[in-house]
Amino acid sequence: MTDMADMLTLTPSAAARVAAIAEKQAKPAILRLSVEGGGCSGFQYKFDLSDGPDADDSVSETDGVRLVVDPVSLDLVAGSTVDFVESLGGAAFKVENPQAAAGCGCGSSFGI
Fold it and tell me: Which fold has domain 9-100?
């Protein structure tokens, strides 16, 4: 496990939302962010609750909630901030990725 506090940030708003979801599902407050091929811009973000970090994961912690990312995904999201936003269109986790050269209107996919 690598400490990635400088590479990836989980906002307090996102941490609070993960904690609430984890409590409802009786799981640890660990959010896994991964990147998959696809989406309208080439890559898409995937969020899951995790039972724990894998040996090669990078880990960031905010307010007792951990964010874990695998090494391949970390290359694509390093420097990003994961936030939880609520708007008239709904509520969702949002990744502010400084590496993304292109994105889509829904904010769930990106291109580099």
Answer: Hypothetical Protein Aq_1857; Chain: A; (2.60.300)
Domain ranges of the chain: 9-100
Measured CA to CA, the distance from residue 25 to residue 3 in angstroms comes to: 26
**pLDDT score at 34:** 94
Length of the chain: 112
HSE of 111 in the Cβ direction (CA atoms, 13 Å)? Answer: 9
Model pTM score:
0.84
Which DSSP string corresponds to 34-100?
EEEE-STTSEEEEEEE-SS--TT-EEEEETTEEEEE-HHHHHHHTTEEEEEEEETTEEEEEEE-TT-
Residue 51 above 90 pLDDT? yes
Residue 104 DSSP one-character state: -
User: Does residue 86 have a pLDDT over 80?
Assistant: yes
